[in-house]
Write a structure and sequence with these properties.
CATH class: Alpha Beta
CATH topology: Nucleotidyltransferase, domain 5
Distance between the termini: 26 Å
Number of domains: 1
Radius of gyration: 16 Å
Number of helices: 6
Strand order of the largest sheet: 1-2-3
Shape: globular
CATH superfamily: Ribonuclease H-like superfamily/Ribonuclease H
Helix content: 40-55%
């Protein structure tokens, strides 16, 4: 599942794109950019996800109907991967992206709304610390048996490998 949110600071906006694995709730990839183009948001984040995880079985890539996900360059990028099937929310149905919206609410409540970042790099460092050092590795989720995403991922991949 993927989505984009706005990170607003006093003098600038940034756009955070994430890809979350619904099985383990891990943020597989994320990217913070000053531009809202598909090249700087969805395409760049998809490349990061594909570098981090090998896709060797069918998966569903779900998003809302934002222009960045509907862009022909992004759709072509997804089509290059034989195991990825694209899925988009129905018009006006925000509940289909509830997991990513919940993540954004948590991120903003626990981190970004509490700080005034002076630069994009400062915001990236804070988001890196939150996602890579806290959310993925330590923060437990009731939806995955009160485990962290990393622990759930480990259990799922070892069960699959056995």
């Amino acid at each position: 599942m993927s989505d984009i949110t706005y990170i607003h600071r006093a003098k600038w906006w940034a756009y955070l794109t994430i890809i979350i694995d619904l099985a383990d709730r891990m943020v597989m990839a994320w990217n913070l950019s000053k531009e809202l183009s598909s090249e700087q948001t969805t395409i760049k984040t998809l490349h990061i996800a594909l570098e981090r995880r090998k896709i060797d079985q069918p998966l569903l890539f779900h998003s809302d109907r934002g222009v960045q996900y509907a862009a022909s360059t992004f759709r072509k990028g997804l089509k290059k991967h034989r195991y990825i099937t694209r899925s988009m929310s129905r018009t006006g149905n925000c509940w289909e992206n509830a997991v990513s919206e919940s993540f954004f609410k948590t991120l903003k409540t626990e981190r970004t709304n509490k700080h005034k970042y002076r630069s994009l790099e400062e915001a990236k460092k804070a988001i890196f610390d939150y996602i890579e050092r806290w959310y993925n590795t330590q923060r437990v989720h009731s939806s995955i048996d009160y485990l962290s995403p990393l622990k759930k991922h480990y259990l799922l991949t070892n069960r699959t490998a056995a």
